[in-house]
Amino acid sequence: MIMHHKEIVNMADKIQDIFGGAVFYQFLVSGWILCTSVYRIANVS
């Protein structure tokens, strides 16, 4: 059972290593787009 848990943790770490950077980049770009949109709406009013 402990070996099974270790394999699951290793698999999760591999997935995080593969997709972690992409998710962070997407979050950063989405935040930038949201802030830019709110700024433009505030300037129009």
TrEMBL record:
Subcellular location per the Swiss-Prot or TrEMBL entry: Membrane
Pfam family, one: 7tm_6
Cellular-component GO terms for this entry: membrane
Transmembrane segment boundaries: 21-42
UniProt topology in membrane: Multi-pass membrane protein
A Gene Ontology molecular function term of the record: olfactory receptor activity
One biological process term in Gene Ontology: signal transduction
Keyword GTP-binding on entry: no
InterPro entries, A to Z: 7tm6_olfct_rcpt
Keywords of the record: Membrane, Olfaction, Receptor, Sensory transduction, Transducer, Transmembrane, Transmembrane helix
UniProt name for this protein: Odorant receptor
